[in-house]
Amino acid sequence: MIEERFDAIVVGAGMAGNAAAFTLANRGLKVLQIERGEYAGSKNVQGAILYADMLEKMIPDFREDAPLERHLVEQRFWMMDERAHTGLHYRSDDFNEERPNRYTIIRAQFDRWFSSKVQEAGAIVLCETTVKELVKDAYGRVIGVLTDRDGGEVHADVVVLAEGVNGLLGTKADLRAIPKPENVALAVKEMHFLPRETIESRFNLKGDEGTVIEAAGTISRGMAGMGFIYANKESISVGIGCLVSDFQKTGETPYDLLERFKQHPSVAPLLEGSEVKEYAGHLIPEGGYNAVPKLYGDGWVVVGDAAQLNNFVHREGSNLAMTSGRIAAEAIFQVKSRKEPMTAQNLSIYKDMLDNSFVMKDLKKYKDMPGLLHIQSQNFFLTYPQLVSKAMQNFVRVDGTPKVEKEKVTVKSFVAARSWTGLFGDAIRFARAWR
Amino acid sequence: MTTEIAVRVEDKLFQNRYQVDVGQAHIKVKPHTKPSPALLALLKACPAHCYELNSNGQVEIAADGCVECGTCRVIAEPGGDIEWSYPRGGYGVLFKFG
């Protein structure tokens, strides 16, 4: 199909692929980027929040023309039971700054814009093309890709695998395993459209201010998972995700879970009267540090979701993807400028650089979290939220019961559900995993 | 209850944009007489309700509404129950918002 040889082929045009292709092309390398969707973003799904800092490092003036929805002035965390939520609510006018730190975005639009920047930087972007296999030489080194176009083999010094969470090419080529059901969450999401004034009044916003709600509790029916509600300009992204292994165990259906979340008395009023225009499903890497596969080899590196780079505790994924893509590109550029071959040994600087960045440092910090929350999901996602909710109601309801007795009831309910040993054990385990 | 939900999923999928590659299923279920636990799990876990039992009690797939999430792959591919790949370039679900 394309005769010439490239310095690098980037597979995928999501956050990681675009960051890699942009950085490589920007430094003068000959880059081919291949995307199976009709356009960059047409296969990608995210909540979605954009963390400005990571993009700013690559495109300092992105705010001038990137399709951004709302800058976030507020974050709410909800712990839910069937009829109530207990909330932690942080809002600050400091976030109405000149260069806001976080925005809501719509991925199909954002990725298209990011892709236009990749093309401006000089990369060739080939859409509607699925890469079927990695091409290896007799020594097992990756030397290119085979696409589903006529005569579809293309060669390059290095292939950047930014193929997303499923990582099909990498698993076919035996570079890493298929993600395990306990290491990925399935999230389903709907886009609800409403007039912008309605959204602003319902979420207490003015102008382009935005808010996000992250919700956990009985909404996931004892499975390890979370719901989310993000305010965009004229739409609300609402979704919920739980571990695939938990869906397998419980037989819950994802769409039923989403319906129940939408019907929750704390959620329904936010969505009332909206028009739904899309329903999406996507996997999210949740295995953390211990699930990160080998990141490089002879002629290849892997970035973003395909490398399981997601900090599920902080709901940070696309910024890790973007950062790993940029760092991989910088590593490749270093090898290239030394005029050295793209061997595993030379490409190992990618891993060194990533280890020294917040990406791996953050994942390492929470390496025990998946084990804790996933194994004890019944406690953390069902028992505790119910207890907290009951305690809160008991605390705020005034009914002539002396406060000492109220307190006793609350303490009793916690001990009855988890026992003193259980409570202390959970607290210590949680604190350890957090540290 | 089940049918009621199934209808709602179809309504949801109706909102989506698809470029269907007629006759080119990107996911295949291996022929079987009795479905494995992994295959049975797909009846519920697939967010697009692509998997159903046929009259012989075997699990079948109609992948037209597939959102290409890969849930069925992580559940059923390691055991060899299904063959999973992406649709040809340009085909399949095309997210307007994503």
UniProtKB/TrEMBL annotation, chain A:
**Which key words are in the record?**
FAD, Flavoprotein, Oxidoreductase
Q: Matching InterPro entries, A to Z?
A: FAD/NAD-bd_sf, FixC-like, FixC-like_C
UniProt keyword Transcription present: no
Q: Which residues form the FixC-like C-terminal domain?
A: 369-435
Q: Which cofactor does it need?
A: FAD
> Which GO molecular function entries does the Swiss-Prot or TrEMBL record give?
FAD binding; oxidoreductase activity
Residue spans making up a coiled coil are none
Function according to Swiss-Prot or TrEMBL: Part of an electron transfer system. Could be required for the formation of a functional nitrogenase Fe protein. Probably accepts electrons from FixA/FixB and reduces a quinone.
Q: Which PANTHER family match?
A: ELECTRON TRANSFER FLAVOPROTEIN-QUINONE OXIDOREDUCTASE YDIS-RELATED (PTHR43624)
> Which family is annotated?
Belongs to the ETF-QO/FixC family.
- Recorded protein name is Protein FixC
What organism does the record attribute this protein to?
Rhodopseudomonas palustris
TrEMBL record, chain B:
Which residues are in the 4Fe-4S ferredoxin-type domain?
57-87
Q: Which superkingdom does the taxonomy of this entry point to?
A: Bacteria
What's one GO MF term for it?
A: iron ion binding
Is RNA-binding found in the keyword set? no
Which keywords does the record carry?
Electron transport, Iron, Iron-sulfur, Metal-binding, Nitrogen fixation, Transport
The role this protein plays is:
Could be a 3Fe-4S cluster-containing protein.
By sequence similarity, the record places it as follows: To ferredoxins from P.putida and C.tartarivorum, ferredoxin I from A.vinelandii, ferredoxin II from D.desulfuricans.
Full protein name: Ferredoxin-like protein
What lineage, starting at the top, does this entry show?
Bacteria, Pseudomonadati, Pseudomonadota, Alphaproteobacteria, Hyphomicrobiales
